[in-house]
């Protein structure tokens, strides 16, 4: 369960990127955070995996206040999460295989297990045939799929994705969402920042509407 | 699991060294040239030390004695001379020895000696100083002490040389501390910045590793290994270039220096100096790398 209590975030005075956000996402939910560009979706996601520290407020993940975790132990939280960054954050000097393998290598899995899992993840995003290519040789959409494969490769209990289908054609976007849904059905909590109304309508169990850093609405499928 | 991860980290360091070989080569060369400057300075300073030793090798002090001294008095004076730490050896030159030496050295003046009724040369103790004696004040103190003994009538030594040597030694030391200090500081500054730039260019990689759950140690180790290797290679490059310079310098440049050639000869580093240089490279590379990485580990 992810709980945010009165979270505020300010990058520069006097503007607030997030204003008094309180929300609750239960384990196993498939949740969207939506809103126009600049509404605070990315900031909110970054705060959940603690890339950013809020100016005020508290965040509990499975009952643990993540703001109290010391820097050198934050890796424990992040190993339970899979993150698809808006800017992909790929290692351009490493092959697709190595990019996807990174979360498994930091966790110390055997080479055999890493190969098996990476292949499966790449097959899920339909990129297994480009396993040994380098990211700069891939299209924008393909790079995005590498980022998705890296996020799902360690079977995370929480999957966070910031505009994961932003550059994909509708068909592929639908496929990627289906993968997220599949991971969700295996028990993972999925939180996606997106403004793709079609996908949100189709997949979202719970939707938070953000505008100018504030939650202006919430919708929950019964 | 620990060995598996260690092996992965060693491989990662190797891959990174190869992948960023252009940038790493520049780092190695900069580290190499920085340490080369220190190495050249050491080689020049070695030469000055050597010249100083050569000069002191030729330093001798003669204590002229009363002709009527008996054996026990001579022995006492000798024992007083030998008691000094500056003294390497003492030779007694009798009046007769001095006379025959004079005859041999100045045959053209033989006639003058033949006209003399008695031997004009007093007996003396010739004192050879130790090689590493470079302190004028110590020598003067020693001479005054021996001169004050009963039976010692005069003392002779090449004070000019000693004074020159003494001032040269002071200059070398002062310049050494000043230039050496500046050079070492400058080199460390340059090297740590080169390593820092290298790490900065890979800050995205560090961030990604942090965000996918890598521990700080996991991120630091490849950088530590890379810094170690770059520092090691850099210092070895400096030693290699210095070796070539020592071989080539006297042939191509030394000949044009004329009389100053002796002063500007590069004398090879001692094994200890070489090892210190390598250790300096390794420490600078490793520390520079690790401290630079730490800046990016706060996300």
TrEMBL record, chain A:
Q: Which SMART domains match?
A: AAA
- GO CC field: plasma membrane
Q: Which UniProt keywords apply?
A: ATP-binding, Cell cycle, Cell division, Cell membrane, Membrane, Nucleotide-binding
Regarding the membrane, this protein is recorded as:
Peripheral membrane protein
Q: Which GO terms describe its biological process?
A: cell division
Top-level taxon in the UniProt lineage: Bacteria
Looking at the record, the residues that make up the ABC transporter domain are: 2-222
Question: What is the annotated quaternary arrangement, including any partners?
Answer: Homodimer. Forms a membrane-associated complex with FtsX.
Output this protein's name. Cell division ATP-binding protein FtsE
Q: Which organism is it from?
A: Candidatus Saccharicenans subterraneus
TrEMBL record, chain B:
InterPro entries from the xrefs?
A: ABC3_permease_C, FtsX, FtsX_ECD
Query: How does it sit in the bilayer?
Result: Multi-pass membrane protein
**Which keywords, in A-to-Z order, does the entry hold?**
Cell cycle, Cell division, Cell membrane, Membrane, Transmembrane, Transmembrane helix
Annotated Gene Ontology cellular components are: cell division site; plasma membrane
Gene3D superfamilies from the xrefs?
Answer: 3.30.70.3040
Q: Does the keyword Cell cycle apply?
A: yes
The superkingdom listed in its UniProt entry is Bacteria
Where does this protein reside within or beyond the cell? Cell membrane
Cited Pfam families: FtsX, FtsX_ECD
Which family, according to the similarity comment? Belongs to the ABC-4 integral membrane protein family. FtsX subfamily.
Which protein, by its recorded name, is this? Cell division protein FtsX
From the broadest rank down, the organism's phylogenetic lineage runs: Bacteria, Candidatus Aminicenantota, Candidatus Aminicenantia, Candidatus Aminicenantales, Candidatus Saccharicenantaceae
